[in-house]
Model the fold of this input.
Amino acid sequence: MDETAAMLIITAILALYVVDKLFSHLEKRKLQDTINELSSKLMAKDYREYTQLSRPESREEKPMRNPQSWHDDPMIEIDDDTH
Done:
């Protein structure tokens, strides 16, 4: 067996090792996410508290109404689709 064949075999073995480690890491991360979710569900005192904890933080909500003019409320973005 010459050197290039030996290097090719070693490279293939290392590539398989790296791919195996990558997939095992992804599987462990998925299992840990499942464990964290189930722990959160278990630690919540009721379903409402669980949904509040699992929901991402709400950002500051923009006002829902459209201003009559720019002078009425300059902080509200005017929705051009309604005009």
